[in-house]
Each structure stands twice: as C-alpha cells, then as structure tokens.
Amino acid sequence: MASFHAAGLVSGRAAGSEDGDSTLSAPRAVMICNTPLHVLNAVEASRHWRISPSEIWLVIKPVSSNSSHEAVSEMLSQAQWGRVIRIDDLPPAQRGFGFVLSLWRQYRHYRRWQRMLCSARDVRRVFVPLNRLVANRFIAAWLRPRQLVWFDDGTLSYVLAREQVLPAPKRQKAVRSKTNNSRKSASP
C-alpha cells in the first residue's frame, strides 16, 4: 500500500485561467509515473483522494529507455484515464559541430511535453513518486500545482533509511609537524 504525503499549498491561479482554456478541459489532478508500480499507486491514489480517473492526466516518464512499455500499458488498462502523456528521455548533448543541434533538440523536447501539459498548468494537485528523479520535480514545478502530493511505493524507503543509518566515511586527521607549522596528513 502506498503512503501519501501532502506538501504545503503553493499559490497559483485556478486551472484553465490561462489562454482562455475552459476548466472542463483541465484535469483535477496530474500524476507522474515512472514504473508500472507507480501506475498502480495512481489508481490507489485516485480512490484515496476520491478523484475519478477520467479527471486525471497521467504523465508517463520512464526511468530509462529500457523500461517495458508493455508492462506500463498493461497497468494503464486498470482505469479509464482522462489523458495519458508519455515523455521520452532527453536527447543527449553532443560536442563539436553537433552541439548547437543537440541544444535545439533538447529545447524541442521540453517544448513538446510543455505543449501537451499546458492546459494542466496551475492544476489543483500533482502527485509525484518519491524517487529523487530530477525530471519529476522539474515537471511538477513547471505545472505550478496548488498542492504537491508525494507518494511512496516503499521501494526507495530502504535505500533512504540505509543512508541515514550508516555512518559517514572517516576522514584522516591532520597533524602538525614539529619542524614547521604546515599540516601533514597522518599515515595509517
């Protein structure tokens, strides 16, 4: 069972107030999913928050290009979503002559998903998996939600707990030499 953590409210305008969009075309919530398990968590979150899946837009941003699209598609059939938006990986930057062209491709990549999500801007809630992906935070910040909800599927909780429990690596102590005042590291 996923746990949900609601972050503080963010100031913003009502959904659909920009560019003359009607509020009927804007979703009540946007859920960012990276894995099939996140899609299952989105189904659970829609029930928990009493939001019909037809009023939710799912943003599928796979963790890697090797992620199974079939597994995600299978999980998508669990509910009738309002809209499913797939965001591919960012095109890699190149060096040399291809540098400017690669910057142009990256710009087009950002503009493509921003156009698909523009009527969801200032949405009431955005649900984001708690997995430290910068792309998830970037998309959520661009949407400017009034409320940000983090959902935890438990897979990263173990890693985060280990990082907090394990001691930091030891540093070598600096010792002063008797002949001069410069510091030298102690040899073990």
Short description:
This protein has five helices and eight strands; from the N terminus they run E-E-H-E-H-E-H-E-H-E-H-E-E. With 188 residues, the protein is an alpha/beta fold.
Task: Provide structural commentary.
This protein starts with a strand and ends with a strand. With 188 residues, it is of the alpha/beta class. It has helices spanning 36-48, 69-76, 98-117, 134-143, 157-165; strands spanning 3-9, 29-33, 56-60, 83-86, 125-129, 147-152, 174-176, 183-185. Mean pLDDT is 78; it is low at 5-24. The strands form two sheets. The protein has a six-stranded mixed sheet, sandwiched between helices. The longest helix has 20 residues, at 98-117. The chain is extended, with a radius of gyration of 22 Å. The protein is 32% helix and 20% strand.
Beta-strand residue percentage:
15-25%
Task: Give the N-terminus to C-terminus distance in angstroms.
Answer: 49 Å
Total number of strands = 8
Mind telling me the C-alpha Rg? 22 Å
| Helical amount | 25-40%
Described by its quaternary structure, the protein is single chain
In round numbers, the mean pLDDT is 78
Q: What is the overall shape?
A: extended
Q: What sequence of helices (H) and strands (E) makes up the elements? A: EEHEHEHEHEHEE
Main sheet record: 6 strands, mixed
**What is the topology, as strand order, of the major beta sheet?**
1-6-5-2-3-4
- Sequence stretches where pLDDT stays below 50 over 5 or more residues: 5-24
Number of discrete helical segments = 5
Structural class of the helices, strands and pairings? Answer: alpha/beta
